[in-house]
Amino acid sequence: MNRTLELVRAFRKADSKTPVVLMGYYNPIHIRGAERFAREAADAGVDGLLVVDLPPEEDGVLREPAGKLGLDVIRLVTPTTHDARLMRVLDGASGYLYYVSITGVTGTKSFAEDDVKAALARIRKASPLPVAVGFGIKTPSQAAQIARIADAAVVGSAIVTVVAEHQKDGRDGIVKAVTELCRTLADSIHTPSGAKVGA
After folding, report:
1. DSSP bridge partners of 76
2. pTM of the model
3. How far apart are CA 30 and CA 27, in angstroms?
4. Which residue from 151, 147, 156 is spatially nearest to 181, judged by alpha carbons?
């Protein structure tokens, strides 16, 4: 956690505008203390938090101190989120919504565009928050496909795969390979829709 926050502080020295969202699990936050973590994250320059295993019914412990410090709490919406549950997810959500485009484990299968379109239409009827779509986005063409219908495309597992594939190339080789992947992803989504790719 200390190294993560230090990375954010170092990034903020060169870039004060690009939003930074920390995504992870609640256990390291719990160990550190939710109020302390929120304060340190805000001081480092973090803009939002996406804690994947902290449901709306239990996230007050973090959402309240985070909200006082201007940190957004991003909530997850999934293909199995029914209408009543969606209303609960939206209550207290801020920043944007993260739509999980597939059921199952990230990086294992691809999304169905028609299903994602239908889900986004339902979410947008219920909330004005931007919607980012993640899971199942591995290639520049898939990122472009999502960018046409969502506010953002989130790519994670593809970057992890590139890091694993370039371990033998050392730090410089890994950085070069990841940078190239991110460049091709960003190039693929530069459309009039203005969607952004996130990692």
Report:
1. 98
2. 0.87
3. 5
4. 156
AA identity, residue 78: T
Extents of the domains making up the chain: 1-73, 75-199
- For 35-47, what is the mean pLDDT? 98
136, pLDDT greater than 90:
no
CB atoms within 10 A of CB 67: 15
In this structure, how many other beta carbons lie within 10 angstroms of the beta carbon of residue 194? 10
Strands of the 72-73 sheet, one edge to the other: 21-24, 48-51, 72-73
Residue 8 CB neighbours (<10 A): 17
Residues 19, 48: Cα–Cα separation, whole Å: 8
75-199: CATH topology is: TIM Barrel (3.20.20)
As a whole number, the mean pLDDT across the chain is 92
